[in-house]
Amino acid sequence: MVLKINQAQDVWKDVGQQVQFTVLKLKRQDPEKERQKIREFADRYQAIIRSLRIRSADLNQQSSLKVTFGFSFQAWTYLFPNAARPKELETYQTLTSDRFTMPATDGDLFFHIRADNEAIVYEAQSQFRHFLKEITTVVDETKGFRYFEGRAIIGFIDGTEAPEAKDAAEYALIGDEDPVFANGSYAFAQKWLHNMEFWDHLKTEQQEKGIGRKKFSDYELDEQDKYHNAHNISSKIEINGQEQKIVRMNVPFSDPAAGKTGTYFIGYARHWKVTKMMLEQMLATSDFLLSFSTIISGQLFFIPSYDLLNQISSGEFK
User: How much is the pTM?
Assistant: First the structure.
């Protein structure tokens, strides 16, 4: 099966300059009314994006707007109780080790919006929210930004382990293993708070050993020069000797006056099981990132293709 990347939402594109993540919860007061509203939104959502890309191109010559929208397992089964389900879609459950926890949190609908101009992000989310506010409440809204040189908020170059753009669709999009949901993606969203005072007091050499790379050049350290739980060791997954990849985006966010700074992690994957294995291994090995971080949210969402959104809009999923 050949992936139709033009049918996929923006699940492997660049991180963006201005970013917003929003998680909504359905009110669950009137299933048929909410189902009908979602059907209408599946069409309206695409129209809003087309309109904003035309409008924002006037500012940037070429629109930088990229958006994804998806459903949790609970939302899918509530809205479409008689329809087929993506094979690997499930409700994420809290993962724990003897030292750390990756909590599961609430959420039905998920938006990931990014653009070069904050006004475009604002307008997109405002229009989405206006249409959905009657049937949803806001669980979380996080605004992120591009840090210097596209680095993670802890100062290291981000995305080194992610697949290159030309190969990314293969790792991000569902294929013929689940043909009804082909060109969709599994999105795992997780919000981390960092103890930046602790991190900033570490020597650069300690930070490098904990990440597994040189901070300035991004050169990978030899195995003997890394901590045993260096991040690029803990997060590396192999199945039958073959390394598995997902499309990772680590977006900085901060309320510096309140002393709250962190990373919003979004991982898009063809197979949720790969992302889940990475999370489990990070816990099992006590990934160095966990030593100065607190994870405050986590949930899995399915990002439909545009074809599937059209089927939802036409009432084919019930």
Answer: 0.95
